[in-house]
Amino acid sequence: MADTSTARDPNGPKPKRLLSRRNIFLYGTLGLIACYYALPLYVMIVTSLKGMPEIRLGNIFSPPVEVTFQPWVKAWAEACTGLNCDGLSRGFLNSVIITVPSVLLSIAIASVNGYALANWRFKGANVFFTILIFGAFIPYQVMIYPLVIILRELGLYSSLWGLVLVHTIFGMPILTLLFRNYFTSLPEELFKAARVDGAGFWGIFLKIMLPMSVPIFVVAVILQITGIWNDFLFGVIYTKPANYPMTVQLNNIVNSVQGVKEYNVNMAATIITALVPLTVYFVSGRLFVRGIAAGAVKG
Amino acid sequence: MTTSENPGSIRRSASRAPFRPFRNLSAKFAAIPMILTALVVFVGGTLWTVVYSFTNSRLLPKADWVGFKQYDRLWGTRRWQVSIENLMIFGVCSLVLSLIIGFLLAALLDQKIRFEDTFRTIFLYPFAMSFIVTGLAWQWILNPSLGVQNVVRNLGWESFVFDPLNTSSIAIYGILIAALWQGTGFIMCLMLAGLRGIDEDIWKAARVDGIPTWKTYVFIVIPMMRPVFITTLVIIAAGIVKVYDLVVAQTSGGPGIASEVPAKYVYEKMFQSQNLAQGFAASTMMLLAVLIVLIPWAYLEFGGKRRG
User: Fold this and answer.
1) Closest to A12 (Cβ–Cβ): which among B112, B186, B262?
2) Which of A5, A108, B75, B237 is most buried, with most CB under 10 Å away?
3) Does A5 map to a domain?
4) Sequence-distant (≥ 6) Cβ neighbours of residue B38 within 8 angstroms
5) A99 and A60 within one domain
6) Interchain CB distance below 8 Å, A120 and B266
């Protein structure tokens, strides 16, 4: 609220006269749409707290008569994918092991790239940068197989570090753009002063740029945690079943053809998988918006 | 002092001449990952795939040239034709609807309302969830025997039918519903940023002239937001071509092949049916589709205002 009202005082169509009718329509519409957007999450939560008999008889929108946490326990620790029946906990652990190094490595590399592009332009730098940005729009499918070959040659195929490398590569365009734009927006005098004082490439980066760019690093971390946690395609292609991230395992659990479908367990598993990005989203709020809009609007 | 500093510092560095290449080296060294990614993976990888789409590679890539045979086979395959049809339907609908819904939501939120942050949080949260989660959630809601169809039937409308995911002719629309739910919040955010970028004086001037709000939007604001619309369009289009996870989670391409999409075709040819070159040919077609959108955009966006 606070910062939206600052620069835009006389806005909105004739506020006083139409106030009540306009507001009923406005808030009514927004409320209805909000209900529609909130509904799937509500249905997932409600379903995951019901027992199977209640699901078969009842209405997916009705709240549980008898709340049970059994489906959550089962989804976490007992649900089966193929021969493994240790639930989503395995996928969760894999996702953590994949996400943490991927986030750190991709941000470390992209921030240095962005810094070099913003402050130390060398000949040809913009050519590579343009290619990189174009790369963000190229369908992954064109680059998937060459990467398989590259990783195989490096001995990283179907290993954890191979996947980390893949995430670093495909995260690079948007992150580099994010950092480049941010570093360009910092006052140039600061950079010049540091150079006059004799600081070098890494000195300026570590001692001056880094401390000033905590917000953009937070944005990048949010962006990457959400993106990498939610990845499915790379997880399927570049890892082996034992290392499958959570999204892949979730899909295998829910869409498995054997056995009776346990919708409550499936929904519990689905929520558990969404929990990490949702937490990041609800906690970070505006920074998340800034992250996803950052590269996009500036063009 | 500040005015003469710039040329001065360049001149002065003449005394430090040996320092300059070293400085450049440092930046270049730091940019090695970017250069490698750009050249080896993005350019190299793409070219490699295009080149090998003209071979007869099956389990492993081999340089056994067969010309356009893979493409002939590709366009003769029913499954690919269905994939392309689906992509067109899905693409056009999701482009148009995302832009309309995204803009309307943004315009509603831009009316100086209370609880703007709350509404935005609700509209945008699906975007934080993966396509797999989105797909599975909607698969459950659209479940014919227990989901929405069942609820409406229990209310008394016994003959109500709404089962897109198991009806071949409309399966792709079931996926569209989930995709719109997931992505429109993001489009709304882009549009909102665009609306906030419109000068306040424009609104004042329109109001002074007595132009109704909706006319101001249609004839003044939207034309002014052209760059935002174009950028959004490109982002949506690039996302549409990649659609894969959502289909895998919601229908696995079914019923039959009714909701197949190109990205899924590529994946299966490459990694499941050991028909690499066919996958390369299909992915090259995807690349071509993206380039048709991308090149005119890049021309518009960067062609005019590139600075030297």
Assistant:
1) B112
2) B237
3) no
4) A128, A129, A131, A132, A135
5) no
6) no
Domain around B245: 73-303
- In sequence order, which residues have a C-beta less than 8 Å from that of residue A3 and are 6 or more positions away? none
Beta partners for residue A84, in sequence order: A81
Longest dimension (CA), chain A: 76
Does a structural domain hold residue B22?
no
**Structure-token pair, residue B4:** 């003469």
Dump pLDDT digits (tens) for A30-82. 999 999 999 999 999 999 998 888 888 878 888 888 888 988 988 888 887 77
CATH number of the domain where residue B97 is located = 1.10.3720.10
Helices (H), chain B: 2-12, 19-30, 32-36, 46-52, 69-76, 78-109, 116-128, 131-141, 148-154, 171-196, 200-208, 213-215, 222-224, 226-241, 245-250, 262-271, 276-303
Per-window interface: B 262-281 vs A, CB < 8 A = 262-263, 266-267, 270-271, 276, 279-280
Side-chain half-sphere exposure of A282, counting CA atoms within 13 A: 8
| Gap between the Cα atoms of B266 and B284, Å rounded | 10
In a domain, B192, yes or no: yes
| Mean of the per-residue pLDDT values of chain A | 85
| Residues B236-253, mean pLDDT to the nearest whole number | 89
Q: Which of B133, B294, B301 sits opposite A299 (nearest CB)?
A: B301
Is there a single domain that holds both residue A34 and residue A141?
no
Nearest to B34 among A60, A128, A289 (CB): A128
- Has residue A176 been placed in a domain? yes
Q: State how far residue B276 is from chain A, nearest Cα, in angstroms.
A: 9
* Nearest residue in chain A measured CA to CA from B27: A116
Asked whether this complex has an ipTM greater than 0.90, the answer is no
Closest-CA distance, B67 to chain A, in angstroms, reads 19
Counting the structural domains of chain B, the total is 1
Evaluate whether residue B8 is within a structural domain. Answer: no
Identify whether residues A131 and A211 lie together within a single domain: yes
Residue B276 in any domain: the answer is: yes
Contact call for B112 and A145, based on CB within 8 A: no
Cβ B37–A135 below 8 Å, yes or no?
yes
Residue A280 sits in the same domain as residue A182: yes
A34 with A162, same domain: the answer is no
Please tell me the distance from the alpha carbon of residue B304 to that of residue B306, in angstroms, as a whole number.
Answer: 6
| CB nearest B38 (choices: A131, A286, A299) | A131
Residue A125 belongs to domain spanning: 89-298
Average pLDDT score over residue span B125-149: 91
Q: How far is B43 from chain A (nearest CA, A)?
A: 8
pLDDT digits (tens, 9 = 90+) for B15-66: 444 445 555 678 888 888 888 988 999 999 999 999 999 988 888 888 888 8
Q: Which tops the pLDDT comparison, A276 or B307? A: A276
**Number of folded domains in chain A?**
2
